[in-house]
Write a structure and sequence with these properties.
The relative contact order is 0.21. The radius of gyration is 17 Å and the shape is globular. The protein has one domain: Growth Hormone, Chain: A (Up-down Bundle), CATH 1.20.1250. It is built from seven helices and two strands; from the N terminus they run H-E-E-H-H-H-H-H-H. The two termini are 26 Å apart. The protein is mainly alpha-helical and 199 residues long.
């Protein structure tokens, strides 16, 4: 199915780009960012992780159901990638706490929207008899992306190529964004059952 192939490509782009970002963000910030006159350390990172968790809960419980009522799957996926691109770019140039927080909020919202949205989209386009196989295959491919992206990110940052690192993440996210634009318009409901299956 062409739509199914597009969805798989979109998912791979998302999780590869997010894996590049999330796996190396602590290294990037500790090398380049100053928090209260000191290099970005574990305490500051814990605040970011806590904020990411709070945003994830808020999006899953409140925002996702509301957004899915008004957005087609294509528009929602485009929104996810637009937030990712904005967040990655902002994180790469952030020199102040407010700018960094804005980047984290954009990326956290995008990632929280992503998994339930992708699962719901797969469920819409795949017959019930094939959903297990298709979703299992998609998760296996995502696991491969989750493995490769930190390795590549670590290799790039090992040479202190910060611009290349964030550039790769943004480029892959842009590929996902462009690919998502060819998805058909279709509304779906990312209901509680779908959220429970992905969480």
């Amino acid at each position: 199915m062409p739509v199914l192939r597009v969805l798989i490509i979109v998912m791979l782009c998302h999780f590869f780009a997010y894996g590049m970002y999330s796996s190396q963000l602590p290294v990037f910030l500790s090398d380049t960012f100053i928090w209260n006159g000191l290099p970005f350390g574990p305490k500051a990172l814990s605040y970011l992780l806590m904020a990411d968790g709070v945003i994830n809960i808020f999006v899953q419980l409140f925002l996702l159901g509301w957004v899915s009522q008004y957005f087609s799957e294509r528009k929602l996926i485009i929104l996810i990638f637009a937030l990712l691109c904005t967040g990655f770019l902002t994180a790469g140039i952030a020199t102040t706490i407010p700018v960094l927080v804005f980047a984290i909020v954009c990326i956290s919202i995008a990632d929280a929207l992503a998994k339930p949205t992708y699962l719901a989209a797969l469920s819409v386009h795949v017959s019930p008899a094939r959903q297990g196989i298709v979703i299992g295959t998609a998760q296996a491919l995502i696991a491969i992306a989750d493995f490769i992206s930190p390795v590549l990110g670590g290799l790039v940052l090992g040479y202190a190529l910060y611009g290349v690192w964030i550039g790769i993440a943004i480029s892959v996210a842009i590929i996902g964004l462009v690919t998502a634009m060819i998805l058909p318009f279709k509304k779906f409901s990312a209901n509680s059952e779908t959220r429970n299956r992905i969480m």
